[in-house]
TrEMBL record:
Family: Belongs to the WD repeat DCAF10 family.
Described function: May function as a substrate receptor for CUL4-DDB1 E3 ubiquitin-protein ligase complex.
PROSITE patterns: WD_REPEATS_2, WD_REPEATS_REGION
GO CC annotations on file: Cul4-RING E3 ubiquitin ligase complex
Keyword Membrane carried by entry: no
Organism: Callipepla squamata (Scaled quail)
Lineage: Eukaryota, Metazoa, Chordata, Craniata, Vertebrata
Protein's UniProt name: DDB1- and CUL4-associated factor 10
Domain of life where this protein originates: Eukaryota
Length: 277
C-alpha cells in the first residue's frame, strides 16, 4: 500500500476548450469508477471518463447558482446540490433533463450523503437544516435543525473514534467521539470549504494542501486504524505530497475501483494522479 501510493505521480489534466465553469468545488466517481463528475462554481456539472481523460458531457445549466456537491446513488443515478437551495437528481442515460428537483432548504445546500441500504438521501445547508429524503417516493421524510458552532481560524484534519457503549445520561454527540489523529493543514483559500476523502479501504486520507494534495496515513505503513489505535491523540503521517495545480486545491477524491486520485482547484483545473512504475 505505502509503495503503491508512494509512487503516485500527476498523470493527466482534464481540460475543456472553453473554461467557463469556474472553480471546482467537488469531485465524485460513479461506484464502478467509469465516470468522474465535477461540481463547478458557474452552475455547471462536468462529466469525464477518468481512464481516457475524455470529456463526456457538460450540464451547462445544471442549477441556477454554484453547484456544491455531487453524490451517486448507483451507477446511473446521481444527485447535485446548489446555492440555488435545490437538490437535483440526474440519470446518466438521459442527461438532457433532470429526473426531478427537490425543494426544502431556504439557503445554500452544501452537502449530500446517501445510504444504499435504506435508499435515504441526506442534505445539509447554510440554513442550518438537515433534510432526509426518501428516494423511492422522492419526498421529504425528516427535517432536522442543526446548530453551527462557528469555524476555527486554523485548518486541521482530524480523525475521531466513536466511543463504545451507551451513555448513562443524555450528553452531546460530541461526548461520544474521541480524537485519535490530527494534522495541521495549510491555511490558504480561506472562505472556501476544503473536501478530503478516505481511500476505499479506509487506510489513507487524501487532503487538499495548498496548491496540491497530501496522502496521509494512521502510521507510516498505512495500517488500518484498528491496528494502530493510539491511547492518546497523535499526528497523522504524511505518505506523499503531490503538487500539479497553480491555484488552491479545494477537493480531492480516490477512485473506488482504480489506483487513481483526482483533485480540483479554484482556477477550474482537475488533475489526475496514478502510480508510476
Amino acid at each position: 500500500m505505502t509503495g503503491l501510493y508512494g509512487s503516485m505521480q500527476p498523470a493527466d489534466s482534464l481540460y475543456l476548450s472553453t473554461r467557463t465553469h469556474g472553480a471546482v468545488f467537488n469531485l465524485e466517481y460513479s461506484p464502478d469508477g467509469s465516470v468522474l463528475t465535477v461540481a463547478c462554481e458557474q452552475t455547471e456539472v462536468l462529466l469525464f471518463d477518468p481512464i481516457s481523460s475524455k470529456h463526456i458531457k457538460t450540464l451547462s445549466e445544471a442549477h441556477e447558482d454554484c453547484v456544491n456537491n455531487i453524490r451517486f446513488l448507483d451507477n446511473r443515478l446521481f444527485a447535485t446540490c446548489s446555492d440555488d437551495t435545490t437538490i437535483a437528481l440526474w440519470d446518466l442515460r438521459k442527461l438532457n433533463t433532470k429526473v426531478c428537483t427537490l425543494h426544502g432548504h431556504t439557503s445554500w445546500v452544501k452537502n449530500i450523503e446517501y445510504d444504499t441500504n435504506t435508499r435515504l438521501l441526506v442534505t445539509s445547508g447554510f440554513d442550518g437544516n438537515v433534510i432526509i429524503w426518501d428516494t423511492n417516493r422522492m419526498i421529504r421524510v425528516l427535517y432536522l435543525r442543526s446548530r453551527c458552532q462557528g469555524l476555527h481560524s486554523e485548518k486541521w484534519t482530524c480523525v475521531y473514534e466513536f466511543q463504545e457503549g451507551a451513555p448513562m445520561r443524555h450528553v452531546s454527540p460530541r461526548c461520544s467521539l474521541r480524537l485519535t489523529h490530527c494534522i495541521e493543514e495549510a491555511n490558504v483559500g480561506r472562505g472556501y470549504i476544503k473536501e478530503l476523502c478516505f481511500s476505499p479501504d479506509g487506510r489513507m486520507i487524501s487532503s487538499p494542501h495548498g496548491f496540491g494534495i497530501r496522502l496521509l496515513g494512521f502510521d507510516v505503513n498505512c495500517s488500518e486504524l484498528v491496528d494502530c489505535l493510539p491511547k492518546e491523540a497523535g499526528p497523522l503521517k504524511e505518505i506523499r505530497s503531490l503538487y500539479s495545480h497553480n491555484d488552491v486545491v479545494l477537493t480531492t477524491k480516490f477512485s473506488p475501483t482504480h489506483c487513481q486520485i483526482a483533485s480540483g482547484c479554484l482556477s477550474g483545473r482537475v488533475s489526475l494522479y496514478q502510480p508510476k512504475f
